[in-house]
Structure formats: structure tokens, C-alpha cells
Amino acid sequence: MCRFGPAGNSPVFYKSGGKSSIEVPQWLYNLGLTAYEYQCGRGVKTGEETAKLIGINAKKYGIALSIHAPYYINFCTAEKDKLEKSKNHLLKAMLLAKWMEANIVVFHPGSIGNMGRQQAFKNAADALEKFLLNEVSQWGVEGIKISPETMGKKKQLGTLDEIIELCRIFNLVPTIDFAHIHALGQGALQTKTDFERVLEKIEYNLGFNVLKNLHIHFSQIEFTAAGEKRHWSVREEGFGPDFSLLAQLLIEKNLEATIICESADRQVEDALVYKSIYEHLQI
Questions:
Q1: Less crowded by CB within 10 Å, the N or C end of the chain?
Q2: Rounded to an integer, what distance in angstroms lies between the CA atom of residue 230 and that of residue 191?
Q3: How far is CA 120 from CA 110, 116, 146, 174, in A?
Q4: How remote is the C-alpha of 20 from its chain's centroid?
Q5: For the packed helices 160-170 and 192-206, what is the interaxial angle rounded to 10 degrees?
Q6: Residue 125 and residue 133: Cα distance in Å, rounded?
Q7: CB of 7 within 8 A of CB of 268?
Q8: Which residues of 64-103 are buried (b: 16+ CB within 10 A; e: fewer)?
Q9: 258: which strand partners?
Q10: Cα angle value 189/5/18 (rounded, 5°)
Q11: CB burial class (10 A; 0-12, 13-18, 19+) of residue 162?
Q12: Which alpha helices (H) appear in 20-79, and where do they start and end?
């Protein structure tokens, strides 16, 4: 069975009386959701005590935890001070994951800027190699999985092929954001076959075990010629991709994926919609 849950704390959590992220695992359990991606996009600001309490509750209520590292990370940069800050942001997120006993830490590889894609990829690969060899052991966060995410803008490193290659080189697990793939490809995911090509490429390059336990981001998305513009919810019509096409493949391939919903301000409501679609197709 696949797991479903939100990215961060949806407005409906606070409207229902929620006060703290410590309460989120039980709240999601009561709704029938089984995953939660803790958001640190603006920096890691959560202390050890709070993190451990979130982790304890997640384990108690069967919620799979992941963490989204700060958006400031840029492993493509040639500027040493920015690279050091990027490493520290990711290390803090990994330490938080250790405290929470979260499954993985999702991160954005970085911005290409004015450099070529090949140079940006080389910079990121070189930086990641040193990071994994040196800093990780110094901080005592060995064993924490980090997961580069497919990105939605042309000026970002993170095409499906680039993410697969980083994962192949460093034995990482990918985060596949289907909205980003759809936006970067100017509406690339229109049919079940389009989704299947993505899954087949992951399996061919990284193996079935990675595919079976895939970490997925999903939402509807608006895009321009430059790629991603903004995420929307299922309430707004005219935006793709269509989750039912992916859901069919999750069932047919017997995957145990985690689907994190990133819909704008309706990540819980839409996660429940996606779960409902998935369960209906299983009947």
C-alpha cells in the first residue's frame, strides 16, 4: 500500500484547533493519512526536544516522516562561502531527521545561473562527493538518506536525468516531483504512458527497490515557458498532471510509494483526494 500525506501544516490544521507540529501525527492519523513531510524551507529552526516529540508521535501513529531541507541550498555554486552555507543547511536538516527518526531529507540541488548545465552538474557532483565523504561523518548523521528532487524551472539543476545520475553516482534515493516534471516539460505528463516512461527510467537506472519505495511529490501546477510558476489544488480546473494516471501505475506495479501532496494551502484536503482515487482504483 502507498502512503499519503501533506507537505507541511495545512491551514485546515490550524482552523481545526491545532497549535503545534507535535500534534500533527495524531491529527493526520485521525484523518486516515500516513505520511508527513516536515518543512524547513526557510531554515531549520526546530530544536531537539520538539523534533524528538514529533518523531515519537509519528512512530506512535504510524506516520512516515520526511523533511524538506532549506530552499537556500545551492551545490552548483562556485562561491565557497555560499557552498559552505549550503552544506550547513543540509547538515542541520539531516541532524533534525536524526532527532525525528525521519526517513529521508529532500533537497534542491541548486541554481544553474549563467553557467552551462554540464558545469553546474560537475560543481554539484564535486560538492556532494566532498560533503558525503567529510562533513556527514563529522556531524554524526551517517545513515540519514538525502534525496535530490526533480525541479520545475529551466534555471535549476534537477531534470529527471540529472537527478537519476546524481542518485546513481552517490547511491542516493530520488524525490520525484511529477508537477515539476510536467512544468519543465511544458505539459509533458498527459497520458498513462508518459508517467510510465518516468517510472521505467527510474527502475532501469536505479533498480526496482528504489522504484518500489519511491518518494513522490504531487500537485497540480501552472507553468510558463521558463517552467514552474505556482502550485494549485485539485479545486482549480485546467491544470495538470492527472493523479489518476499515476495511481493506476502505482497499483499495477505494486509500489509502496510515499505521495506527499504540495497543493497550495490544501495539501491535506488534496492528499485525501489522491488517497481516495488510489483506493477507488484498487476495487
A1: C
A2: 22
A3: 8, 6, 19, 18
A4: 22
A5: 20
A6: 12
A7: no
A8: bbbbbbbebbbbbbeeeebbebbbbbbbbbbbbbbbbebb
A9: 3, 215
A10: 140
A11: buried
A12: 24-31, 48-60
Residue 202 near residue 173, CB atoms below 8 Å: no
Cα 11–Cα 15–Cα 19 angle in degrees, nearest 5? 85
Burial readout 264-277 (b: 16 or more C-beta within 10 A, e: otherwise): bebbbbbbbbbbeb
Q: Counting Cβ atoms within 10 Å, is residue 201 exposed (0-12), middle (13-18) or buried (19+)?
A: middle
Which residues contact residue 224 at a Cβ distance below 8 angstroms, ignoring those fewer than 6 apart? none
Length of the chain: 283
Q: Which three cell numbers stand for residue 39?
A: 518543512
